[in-house]
Amino acid sequence: MNYLALLKLVSPEAILALAALVTLGLGLGANRLLPFIAAAAGLIAAAAAIFALPAHASLAHGMLVIDPLTSLFKVVCLALALFTILSASGRPDRPNNGEYLAMILLATIGLLILAGTEELLMIFVGLELTGLSLYVLCAFDKSSPRGAEAGLKYFLFGSTASAFTLFGISLIYGMSGVTGLGEIAAFIGAHGMQPLLAAGLILTLVGLAFKIAAAPFHFWAPDVYEAAPVSAAAFISSGSKVAAFVVLGKFLITGFAPIHGGAGWHALAPGWAPLIALLSASSIVIGNIAALSQTSVRRLLGYSAVAHTGYSLLGLLAGGSEGFGATLFYTTVYAFTLVGAFSVIAAMQRQGLGDKITDFAGLRAKSPLLAGCIVVFMLSLAGLPPLPGFFGKFYLFMALLHQGQAIKLLWLVILALAGSLVSLYYYLSVVKAVLVDETPSPRVSLRLLERTSIAALGALILALGLFPGALLQRILASLR
Amino acid sequence: MIAWTIYATFAGALLLLVLPRSAARWLALLTAATGLAVSCAAFFNVTDPGTLKNIVQIPWIPSFGGMSFHLAADGISLTMAVVTGLTGVGAVLFSWNVHRRQNEFFFWLLLVIGGSYGVFLSADLFLFFVFYELVIIPKYLLIATWGSTNKAYGAMKLTLYSFFGGALVLIPLIPACLSAGTFDLQLLSVHVFPLAFQAWAFPVMFLGFAVLAAIWPLHTWAPTGHSAAPTAGSMLLAGVVMKLGAYGALRVAMNLFPQGFQSWRGLIAILAIIGICYAAAVALRQRDLKFVIGYSSVSHMGFVLLGLATAQRLGVSGAVLQMFSHGVIAGLLFAVAGRMIYERTHTRDLFALSEMKLNRAIPFAAFTFVVASAASMGIPGFSGFAAEITILIGLWHAYPVLVPVAGIGMALTAAFTLRALRFSFFGDKSPAPPLECLPITLAEKCGASLLMAATLAVGLYPKLLLDRILPCVDAMRFLKP
Amino acid sequence: MITLLILIPLIGAVAVTALPRNCSRPLALLFTLASAIATCLLWFRFNPGLGGLQLIERHAWIPAVGAEYFTGIDGISLLFLLLTSIIIPFALLAERRERSFCALMLVLQSALYGTFTAQNFILWFLFYEMSLLPAFLLIRMGGGAYSSRSATKFFVYTFLGSAAMLLGFLAIYLSKGTFDFVKLAQLAPKGLVSGPIAWVVFISICFGLAVKVPLFPFHTWLPDAYTSAPTGVSMVLTGILSKMGVYGFARLVLPLFPQELKIAGPWLLALAVCSIVFAALAAWAQTDLKRMIAYLSVSHLGYCMLGFFAVASGSSHSAIDINAALSGVFMQVFNHGITAAALFYFAGLLEKRFGLRGVDDFGGLMQRAPVFCAFMSLAMFSSLGLPGLNGFIGEFLIFKGSFTLAALASSVAALGLLFTAVALLRAMQALFSGPLVESKSPFPELTARELAVIAPISILMLWIGITPQFLFNIFNSSVVQMSRLFS
What we know:
The complex is a heterotrimer of chains A (about 475), B (about 475) and C (about 475). Chain B is mainly alpha-helical. Chain B has helices at about 5-20, 20-45, 75-95, 100-120, 125-135, 135-145, 150-180, 185-190, 195-210, 220-230, 230-255, 260-285, 290-310, 315-345, 350-355, 360, 365-375, 385-400, 400-425, 440-460, 465-475; strands spanning about 55-60, 65-75. Chain B has 21 helices and two strands. Chain B has a two-stranded antiparallel sheet. Chain B is globular, with a radius of gyration of 21 Å. Chain C is mainly alpha-helical and about 475 residues long. Chain C has a two-stranded antiparallel sheet.
């Protein structure tokens, strides 16, 4: 394969890298708007480049894989990054704006790498690139001590997790002699499972579990969600989660398929399923219960992120393309919902409001658009029809129970439903503050960009709720 | 044609968000009246009420057997659609004086009505569940924003209980649809599920539905929630939303798991009869008029559940008839207590009301409450009697020993209704003159007359409804011969 | 025809409610006049020579539960209808009251017409219950401390009784599959319900009706209700509402439970005798005129019950005696209705003039208002059972029949006659004769209006007393048919 063909295959990442550099440069200039335009243009161009990619390609034992699934999720990550940029555009006077946007773009490159690989080393590279960029983004606001604390926590946790991951990868390589996921699966199929291989699996899982904020590796999430700059938090909650789930899914379902195991009630079978079940159950329980007592909406979203990770993991537990599809659908919907929620919070911040639940009081009078959209987002997270959160959960349960031993897995469904019931309470407290409270407040005006992006996200969530089949079909088709 | 009830109601709701305030209530009335007109037209024109007739079937989400936008109606669905229409129009008329955030109020109201139409007309289990859960948030917001006593607590309790009930329904629903390979209600109702599955699936699903129907002991959300709700909210909640649960129990739980139903129906009958008597006894001790009516709703729904538990054709038909009847009667009772009394006197305390000589101050309200009380007590000539006697006949075939207990319940009902009537309107011991208050408005009179006419018509000529209900019940497979 | 009769007062009630207040009483009277005309038309179309139901109307109503719109009249029903058509206008004319009073009276009239003509239990029950709420509300209108309590007591008693009746008839329906009175009467000789349930059914139905009549010991609601109700309402309560219970016994119990009645006869006779004697004693002890008349009502209705139970459980099967007893019961029903209503009317007049109604509050009225006293004495003597007045006929026939059928009971019951006489004569003496009670307001004589109201009734009392034959002709064939059941 000659260099030009290779460049074509990595064109999205390359364009983004270029855009990052350009943005960095433009940030030094006087014009405040240019960096945003450059960043946005870069993202759009990268998306266009994805459409120009061939349908299937594979490079160097799965280091770069192009198939419908990876293309789809690359586009999703780019879209999430675009909305993040739009949200960040609300603060053009941020110091070091160019660096900020460049970091976002670099993190996006990391996400694209994660989404498009089926090989352990590249997974690690993607994780590191994303992680380092996100650590910086998290601590970007130098004037905020809590931001610095959050960034430090994220960095320390993340580095430790990376160490675990690297160790695990090395063990897997050491035992199997290969790094491609498909080849690992073939190796296990041929030689069976070995203790060190299992150790490698568990260690890698730790690292990935950190990335998706699964309990008990979630402790960074509430602080980061609360204290990072709003657009950074938006990106962390959405983009990195989507890509991490893509990777996790491929890792487990493609790479370690032969040792799926079972997590039935009184019917555990050895494999990675019991581990995922444990992660899922603890995430649902810890995330929901901790979120009950929060007064800050951002921290609440942080803990609820843990809970939603728990729900998404159920799909991976189900295994197969149905389960993986369910997870991806749920995570995608969740990501867009969170970007929307954080965009609303950013818009409120621009009006001088904080992020406590009490700050949401009277939002209805201040801006019906913000109020309507945040209600839509909260209710979708709670899992109420006709919003996509409901359908996502429903589909996850369907996938989980479609297995042979379906009834044995009912305990997880019951746990998830119980978690949803608890979560309804705290999501309703936000909705209550927004819609029921009647503090008299003057109408505020939003910038056009803010309004369009939030409205677009709200409309997207509503549309996905009424017609989830479109996205679901795409995901399932790409998994076949 | 009847699908237009759903479309019109949702369309009206959406329009309400953009129209100016002055047109809000008229649009709401127009939408509700359209719903009523369409459902009545379909009801009277139905040719073969026993079979579930397809109206709309559009594939929606093709996976796991395919969920489709599938609407179908038979006699029972049409009956419930008519009572939704009646209560909806009544609710709008009795909310004519709502001024605060009018557009939003009617928006949420229409969403509840539209969601209810959707539940009654769905023939796809996923769509059914979507509509079933759809009404939860509008209920919450109606109570939390425009409610009165203890609205935050009442709203949250009601919402969490409803969601809990929905979760209970979902747990057996998914394995059932997966093992049958379809979401279509008609196909599911002929599918035979394994007995071991039915043994747990039925009680969980029935309980989930019955939570919304205020089965004892999971009924405590009802009096609190209904008292906290604004008048239209209470009318719809007690009149229609509680029936969603009972309808779901009948159409889904009992029909899909007939063997499970047979093994559990004794327990259901016992819980129902406890609910009837317990709620009536508690109502006898209440000081707040709306709590009396709230508990009376629990008691009347107990009759519905009792009728369902008999698994006899007359008992189940009586249960559906009671669903219709109680829908109208609860609407009337809450309308009087909330709109006619509370908004004028600003109190619901029975002892305070007994000093106000309300039968002289607002005689139309007194008349309406007398009619509503008579209907609630089960006096012949009103729909309550027709329903209760049908249920009793079915009960005698199934569990004859429970009939006298039901009789005790009816006696208790008469007692607390009479007490409420006496204290609220006819307590004329005080020397004070009658309360000075606004006369009953035209909107209130129209709403009350509509509901009173409905209960009287069905009471005098229940054949109107029974002709359409009995064929459907005969076709259900859980009937004991 | 019958449906029209039932509908006329209902339409009247609606009209009275809808139209302005000041024409409510004339309008109500107009509608009662119309219904009276309708009743007379029914009377003309009725053929007294035939025994069974006439002027039948049958329509399907709720086939699923066996309810049918089935109305028809025989002689007994026609008698009660005529009584209703007389009492209600009498009550409306007795006092001037507001619109709701007139409307409720009309609704009550419709309910009564329906009860007396319905031949299917569900329909009968519908009309029976339809009378409860208007009666409750009407009693409440009496005002005063006790009216709400008495009204509630009345309602609760009657409601419980009717609930018991409903359950009893449900059991019959489930056993025989029909609610139709005619069919049930045909099936009755073989027993309607088998096994011990039959007794439960019999007792519940008897209980339900016993509360209405009322029969000792279920009569405790009556004195309070009659006393605290307004005059017109008391007239209706005693004149016709209590007769619903008697009609119920005649239509529901006697034809349908011959075996049980025979066995339970002695007990029921004992209850009837207690009613007669104890109520009369209690009447003697009263100082409140209205309360005294109330207790007298219980006693007089006890005679009806005596007649019924004697016939049902009697030792001999002599057709003459059975006929006599039954005819006496129905005569007593009609006569007592008119007489008691008249007595309450006078009590009401006394109360209106003086604001008091204690027997000892008046005195020497004969000197001040002789015409008033004359008419009142007429009514009181009729209630006593003086020959030549209508009250005598019924009582005489009942005793004539019952002596042979149930000698012991009748002998004891004769004491009741004695106590009734004592009570009434004492009242007459205290009211009319004796020294004048000093008071500032003069006691006005009977006005022309009042005279116009009471004169026809008094003439009727005399006429029936002298030539009762025209009444007999109405129900004779039905009585004969009924007596065949027991002979």
